[in-house]
Amino acid sequence: MTGFIDINPPYLNPRYKSTVLRAPRKRLIQLPPEWFHRSPGPVFGRVAVRPGDNDLTTQHPGRPIGQFITLSGRVLDSDGRGVPHTLVEIWQANGAGRYVDTADPGLMPLDPNFTGAGRTLTDSSGHYRFRTIKPAAYPGRFRGMFRPAHIHVSVFGPDLGSRIITQCYFEGDPLLPFDAIAQSVGDPRGLDRLTARLNWDDTELGDVDAALAYDWDIVLRGREMTPREPLT
């Protein structure tokens, strides 16, 4: 049996130039186990999650521009058990590759009918579901960089040490092999865990707002854990 393989991206990755400025320069400090909270439930505090917060296509009066999709799956612990009633948040670019963020220097247009952020709580079996649009690819801040379509995801597990912030990609994206952030994972198995798969059986058909269905499970820790996002 082989030992544990860390598939998380390194803090410092010269190809992803933001990490050169933000990676720790000193040796990391090992915290004692008792430092972490061991509360029995989620630790995200009092967060209002309203019905419909998981549908990013109905947050405004008009229809957002782009291909409608659903992103669904389960939040799992290291033993493959669903993590119930935990907060999952997403944020993303719109159908033109632009974020609703003053820090986004892109020249692509904003969509007045798409904010690009949503949240939901997993059910008793750890299932979650979002309805949104597929984000467009966009050029990165550094020369020679073009980001593939992706959705940012934050998940709070049952204790402080099991929060994960990561990115979800889509199978078959031709830009994945050239993306410094995705490739910073290193191990192909790790990148595979960041990739959502098309589920044709669950895809909605026969309507102008039909949505392609994508499946993606999130594992908080253990050998099959979903890699975290590198420093951004």
TrEMBL record:
Give residue ranges for domain Intradiol ring-cleavage dioxygenases.
71-99
Name a Pfam family for this protein.
PCDO_beta_N
Q: Does the keyword DNA repair apply?
A: no
Gene3D superfamilies under this entry? Answer: Aromatic compound dioxygenase (2.60.130.10)
- Do you know which InterPro entries this protein is assigned to? Intradiol_dOase_C (IPR000627), Intradiol_dOase_core (IPR015889), Intradiol_RC_Dioxygenase (IPR050770), PCDO_beta_N (IPR024756)
Q: Recorded GO terms, molecular function?
A: ferric iron binding; oxidoreductase activity, acting on single donors with incorporation of molecular oxygen, incorporation of two atoms of oxygen
Superkingdom of source: Bacteria
Q: Which UniProt keywords apply?
A: Dioxygenase, Oxidoreductase
Question: Cross-referenced SUPFAM superfamilies, in alphabetical order?
Answer: Aromatic compound dioxygenase
Keyword Transmembrane helix in the entry? The reply is no
Family membership noted in the UniProt record: Belongs to the intradiol ring-cleavage dioxygenase family.
Q: Which PANTHER family match?
A: DIOXYGENASE, PUTATIVE (AFU_ORTHOLOGUE AFUA_2G02910)-RELATED, INTRADIOL RING-CLEAVAGE DIOXYGENASES DOMAIN-CONTAINING PROTEIN
Q: Could you identify this protein by its name?
A: Protocatechuate 3,4-dioxygenase subunit beta
